[in-house]
Amino acid sequence: MKRTALAAVILSVAMSGAGAWAQGGAAARAAARELVEKFSRRAGVEGAEALSRELAEFGGEAAVREALERVAAESGEATMRRAAALAQRHGLDAVRAVRRLPAGASGPVIEAVEQTAPELVGPALRALAREGEGEALAQLTARFGPHALEAAARHPGVGTPLVQKLGAEGVELSRTLSTNQAMAVTRQADAIAALPAAERRGVLHVISSQPAKAAAFLDKHPKFFLIAGAGALLATHADTLLEGQTDVIVGPDGQPMLVQTAGLVERSVIRPVMSWLVPILAVIVAGWGAIRLWGALRRERSRGSAA
To answer: Which residues pair with 257 in a beta bridge?
Structure first.
């Protein structure tokens, strides 16, 4: 009797799930058909042969339907309709992004896309659709929401690894750095992330407060953080290090130490001295020359008088 009741419950749940899936599948098919019709109308009105070709290369209505059915199966019909609405506004970029999402990520990622700054939604969707980046970005979006998407959108190909390696601090940096500066930081992000917490905070503060100089310094010193404790010296002596007036070396005791770079003495001592010494020397040389000339003239006159 109990087994019969249990079987009935299981059958009921299965039928309920199948019914829900069928309903979601039907809605996904209808949404896919509507999207493809809209894409086709747009291509016809704008003469956009490229859009028609992109749709065909993507797989046409079948591929669009498959992407939406997957969202419906994972996150429900409501989320699928939100994905379709994104595709209505942003075209195939949205469908490509949805198709590349890892299993179970559609709900959180679509919600984050909806919260992303409007001007960054398009680039964010392209980042999600990008091979080799989309899955990592989706995972970051689950942690950092729209902030991860905005970092990827601001710095194509760079924002995602920046956040992946530096976490929330990478998100903050993405708001202040140019893309070239973000590239310089990302190249050394693993080394920065491995620094002790206080040292890392100091280095990141230097980067955020002086991004151009810090990025140039990191590009010039690709192995800087291999010196243990170098990050702490950068944090406390940023002004002289970033200006190239000092450098960090390993001392005899194996500890990092700050030294003046070649040319600092010249800039700070020799050049100021020469600025006032050269005019004095010029006066002395001119005076010596005048005395020699006067002496020569006197000798010539003496010879003329004797003759």
So the answer is: 249
The Cα diameter of the chain in Å comes to 154
* Radius of gyration in angstroms for the set of CA atoms belonging to the chain, rounded to a whole number: 35
pLDDT higher than threshold 80 for residue 290: no
What is the distance between the alpha carbons of residues 133 and 97, in angstroms, rounded to a whole number? 11
- Per-residue pLDDT tens digits for 112-146: 999 999 999 999 999 999 999 999 999 999 999 99
Residues 81 and 86: their CA atoms lie apart, in Å, by: 9
Detail the DSSP E strand segments found in 24-179: none
pLDDT digits (tens, 9 = 90+) for 222-233: 999 988 898 999
| 98 in Cβ contact with 74 (< 8 Å) | no
- Beta-carbon contacts of residue 225 (< 8 Å; ≥ 6 apart): 188, 191, 192, 194, 195, 231
Tell me the C-alpha distance between 142 and 106, whole Å.
10
